[in-house]
């Protein structure tokens, strides 16, 4: 389902609706298997660890680390042309699940890559994109 | 299985921009050349193994191609492993021959993404489109970034792979891109998805290529004289999408190579020349590590040292690879491996007796290895 201006917003279905609803209420959630204690994203109907369906949604702490990132210099979809250059990151939550996201709050005057390093601690910062609440992350301030 | 099955013939079309040619026509031309090269009449072919055109999936493509070729195979079909499929089908065809399921197998691939559609390579990644996550190059860029952060791999080291392949391609009259590249040219090429530049990315190409397999015994009986024995083959699959993959800097290329080396009774030190899948420079660099040609994390130093050049300790991609000969997913590497073992390659490595070949697909999801001898 695309937004009126053709922006690629997610298709929400019965399986993933709790994930998107929780984000709308300010929480990032993930699936957790009550049989084998595996945790994962994105939404699946069976636990990829033990194939059981005995799972529940749990709320993430928001603490995470940066696994890797890229910076787009070419738009693969016209909706992102005006944002170039922009970053996309792989983020690992402290609870284990990994997801694709964006790092926000960077200094726009500096090179994106110079502000990021692998395994850097991150903190959840939910933002709104075309009416959809989505997870983003900021670099966690050093304590 | 070592040496029981041989590659008896190879064939290819022109590589490049071939408007108006269907994938059926490109496959038919490649198979015609491969059968002529082998000296085996078409009516002896009873196995047909096909990778469907990457740019356009078509239901029952293998049967439609069999009809085009006028072949009624006993065994065959279409195999879906992305870019690993051509080398893995050579393995399946070898097993089919050894198990008495067929006598002569054709393995063939053709595609026309340059004159047709390249949409398959720009695909969006499901829900993650909302983050701007699109395209195959970005998946490899994620892996490259992690490798750089973890091991200190540099752009110049990735560039050494591009320069090597382009140098070799410039000396191959069959190559689509016969223009050498300097490291300065590479560094100046525009970023596509950072850290990958344009010249880290393979060509987009139309073309077809095919090989003919049979048993060593059939080859002896029929007096076939250009055969190259398959000493080993293997596969490995990483499966997870890049975002979900627990370790980004190693892949099942390792398992694939170990299986192939074990079958061949050889080690990486025995390999004289290698054709290493280079859809992106990082793919070749990590495959060299996973195969054991250098240690994990040392692929950058290994490539920048000159070891992979034609006069180095392990010349790779002697016909130019995906970066220079043709962007075709893998079959050209198998054909070049056969030429090196026959001793008639455009950039022949003198005295080469063993060749390792890697094919891989998806974003390092699938991997297949072949080891050829003499």
Automatic annotation (TrEMBL), chain A:
PANTHER family with a match to the protein in the record: BLR3430 PROTEIN
UniProt organism field? Flavimaribacter sediminis
Q: Which Pfam families match?
A: OB_ChsH2_C, zf-ChsH2
Where is the organism placed in the taxonomic lineage, from the top? Bacteria, Pseudomonadati, Pseudomonadota, Alphaproteobacteria, Hyphomicrobiales
Q: Where is the ChsH2 rubredoxin-like zinc ribbon domain?
A: 20-54
- What is this protein's name? OB-fold domain-containing protein
Matching entries from SUPFAM superfamilies are given as: Nucleic acid-binding proteins (SSF50249)
Query: By its UniProt entry, which InterPro entries does this protein fall under?
Result: ChsH2_C, ChsH2_Znr, NA-bd_OB-fold, Thioester_dehydratase-like
Please list the residue ranges annotated as the ChsH2 C-terminal OB-fold domain: 57-126
Automatic annotation (TrEMBL), chain B:
Extract the GO molecular function terms from the UniProt entry.
acetyl-CoA C-acyltransferase activity
Thiolase C-terminal domain: from which residue to which, for each copy?
234-373
List, alphabetically, the InterPro entries matched: Thiolase, Thiolase-like, Thiolase_C_2
Pfam families per the UniProt record, alphabetical = Thiolase_C_1
UniProt name for this protein: Thiolase family protein
What species is this protein from? Flavimaribacter sediminis
